[in-house]
Design brief:
Helix 1 crosses helix 8, helix 2 packs across helix 3 and helix 6 packs across helix 11. The strands form five sheets. The chain has a four-stranded parallel beta sheet. The chain has a four-stranded antiparallel beta sheet with strand order 5-8-6-7, with helices on both faces. Strands 10-9-12-13 form a four-stranded antiparallel beta sheet. Strand 12 and strand 13 form a beta hairpin. Helix content is 30%, strand content 26%. The chain is α+β, with helices and mostly antiparallel strands and 437 residues long.
Length: 437
């Protein structure tokens, strides 16, 4: 019989929003183990730019289902579906039950994306949660004088620290609310009329990367964030691995994040959690149903020689995932935006690249691009990667390399008659939606 003895690879449906940093590494990892069909949308997306796959309107699930079923008729059934970034995970979660594939429930993914729903779920499950309250930005405000300042004000549905502000008193909160109204009012990508205020949680911040299997969390990596994140804005900068936390604290952290994920309703696949640790305990800031964003996954090379993408793909295909510790330490600096302006050039790249321990300096912003800092912005200039024998040496290498860089900006012209709130919103809509941490 023709084809007898040929072992056919499993088929994997990979849902990748346009512009995702994660597409190329996940596609490479998936192609090594599966017959991959890439799904994207738009007239200028990864599919239409030369990669084979399906170009679909990801917002139209009925159309997506019809196209995927037609692909099944042509090439055979899919064994797994995997969504990249928040939006891709949501589409994959909605499509999976229609196709008889395993994925997190759509409601659980919605909770992971909505900070107000997430807080309610964590509180109901007995996970440590700061005092919080939802504000309606399109209506009258409640009394603000007796709140437990300092507070953190944040949109209920955004990522990358966009719109997140610390406020220390009533005047600061009112100014922050006005700024948030102007920033979100014209952005159709977010829920603009709701904001969350919560008590500021001091402490040491970490990030946990893990995989859920039937609701049980396997820790892949814990990243220390060595510099204080106390506001007024909360831009991600340094991620260093391995963490300096002791074994008992690491296990307590894993247990806390697992309980939080269960509270959301998440049961399968990658998660990226942000937590703070202090004398009161472990506080879950958020849990995203995806891997770490941007190019930061380059940090992760496990003792088995596998990348983070390799592990996630193997897990999606139902294979066992074994994680071994890597030797030494690694870190990344997500280069912050220094101010509002048009990027003219970046100086000091050669000096930064020559710092001992630095592996690579990646500048993503391009000459002529408008740069918008937090809280209106949602992007980084690029990334610096370093490796070394211990976390402190890696941190020092990253800090030294960043110190060599100089960013030359030209001013951005704004009409003098534009109100401040509208100017903020206009700046926000020009920011390139880039890495999610």
């Amino acid at each position: 019989m023709a084809g007898a003895g040929v072992i056919r690879q499993p088929r994997l449906l990979l849902v990748a929003p346009f512009g995702s940093y994660r597409t190329a590494p996940f596609l490479a990892a998936a192609r090594a183990r599966a017959d991959v069909v890439l799904v994207s949308e738009g007239t200028a997306n990864v599919v239409s730019s030369g990669l084979p796959g399906l170009r679909l309107p990801l917002h139209d699930l009925d159309a997506c289902e019809r196209a995927v079923r037609a692909e099944v008729d042509r090439g055979g059934a899919f064994q797994a579906i995997l969504g990249l970034d928040d939006w891709g995970a949501e589409v994959a979660g909605a499509l999976a039950p229609r196709l008889g594939l395993a994925a997190n429930p759509p409601q659980a993914l919605a909770v992971a994306r909505r900070k107000d729903w997430a807080r309610a779920a964590l509180q109901a499950a007995g996970v440590l949660v700061p005092w919080h309250q939802v504000l309606a930005l399109d209506g009258g405000l409640p009394p603000l004088s007796d709140l437990p300042y300092p507070l953190v004000l944040k949109p209920v549905a955004s990522s990358g620290s966009r719109g997140v502000m610390r406020v220390d008193d009533e005047a600061g909160l009112r100014a922050g609310i006005a700024r948030l109204r102007g920033m979100l009012g014209r952005d159709e990508r977010v829920v603009w009329n709701r904001a969350l205020i919560e008590r500021f949680v001091p402490g040491f911040e970490i990030a946990l990367e893990g995989l859920l299997t039937g609701g049980v969390l396997q820790t892949l990596a814990i990243f220390d964030k060595p510099e204080p994140l106390d506001g007024p804005f909360f831009e991600e900068t340094y991620y260093i691995s391995p963490s300096r936390l002791d074994a008992a604290t690491r296990e307590a952290l894993r247990d806390c994040v697992e309980r939080g994920a269960r509270a959301y309703g998440l049961r399968e696949g990658p998660i990226h959690a942000e937590c703070r640790l202090n004398a009161e305990g472990i506080w879950v800031i958020e849990i995203a149903a995806r891997t770490i964003g941007g190019l930061c996954a380059r940090l992760l090379r496990f003792g088995t020689g596998l990348s983070l993408e390799d592990l996630v793909v193997r897990h999606a295909l139902g294979e066992e995932v074994a994680v071994g510790a890597r030797e030494g330490a690694a870190g990344v600096l997500m280069i912050p935006i220094p101010g509002l302006g048009i990027l003219k050039r970046v100086e000091g790249l050669m000096a930064a690249d020559r710092v001992p321990g630095v592996v690579e300096v990646v500048i993503d912003a391009r000459e002529g691009q408008e740069l918008v800092p937090l809280p209106e912005g949602a992007s980084y200039l690029g990334f610096i990667f370093a490796e070394g024998p211990d976390p402190q040496m890696v941190y020092e290498a990253l800090k030294t390399a960043h110190g060599h860089l100089r960013f030359v900006l030209a001013p951005v012209w704004r009409p003098a008659v534009m109100p401040a709130g509208e100017a903020a919103a206009d700046a926000a809509t020009t920011a390139k939606a880039m890495p999610q941490a």
